[in-house]
Amino acid sequence: MEEKSKGRNDGIIGVLMLLWSRRKLLTINCVIGGVLAIVIAFSMPKQYTSSAVLAPEMTSGGGLSGGLGAIASMAGVNLDGMGNGNDALYPELYPQIVSSTPFLWEILAMPVESADGEIKTSLYEYLLRHQKSAWWTKIYSVPMNYIKGDEVHAVDTTNLGKSDAKRLSKQQFKVLTALDNRINVAVDKGNNVITIDVTMQDAKIAADVANAVSGKLQAYVEKYRSAKARKDLEYTEKLYKDAEAKYHEAQQAYAEYASQHQNVVNAKFQVEFDRLANEKDLALSMYTQMSQNLDIARARVQENTPVCVVMQPAYAPIKASSPKKIMMGFLFVFMAFFGTSVYIILKDKIVNR
Questions:
Q1: pTM of this prediction?
Q2: What's phi and psi for 311, nearest 5 deg?
Q3: pLDDT tens digits for 12-36?
């Protein structure tokens, strides 16, 4: 046992002594790794990440629905078949909504302005023409663009958000994908808090885009969840207007007939008078019923309109989120040390074999 332990210690000590004997090579390679990390880090354009935090309202079957059910039952209306459908859109689906082509296509049409005020254009043009890149990317892209024959075409961005997002050119699809890669939507499954992160090369533009995504997502969810209730409201308003018109018509007919036959007393007059009175009362009943239904439909729209609280609006960040120069330096130095150590050990084993 002692011999095995001694042999293991000798092996570790031997490796350390071997590396110490080649410390000059290790130092040179680590310095080269550090310098390479500095060159790469300072060649990469700065990226700024701005975040917005939302807390969506989680609807349930309680609350106003119970009160509406009681009022509707008193009015003779059954709301059981009028499901709100809110549960069809879970917060877990929000990342897919933001990544959808129509959603991103409308975001691309928004105007943006850089922090220094030198760039004032649409987000589409900003991502297409005002992006910095590392020098090695430019070296690589020149021959590739020459081979492929890619050209940057001018695009009219005036009506970009209104144009057809189903027919995209290669250039448009490239910009759309670039925007999608710069937006990240995370949902906390514990409390359904939504965090929207947008990364851009300009701090102000990153914050503006994050707030735009936040606002558009809120509008999308509100429109989706209240769509059925709004359609029901439109239909109920139509029925209400029809019932109101019929009631006024029946009331007018009853009043005219009564005024024309004030001094007439016979069975024929009484039958017609009773018929018009019954029609007027029936029209009044329908008019009252539709008025109650209209109030319920309006309350349903209010109930189904979600409230999304902006817990943290997006602000222009002060510090860049990438590149992380210190971390990159440690990584390159470690890789240089590790790679050189493996090379020294393997070479020593081959020589002494």
A1: 0.68
A2: -70, -35
A3: 888 889 889 889 999 999 999 999 9
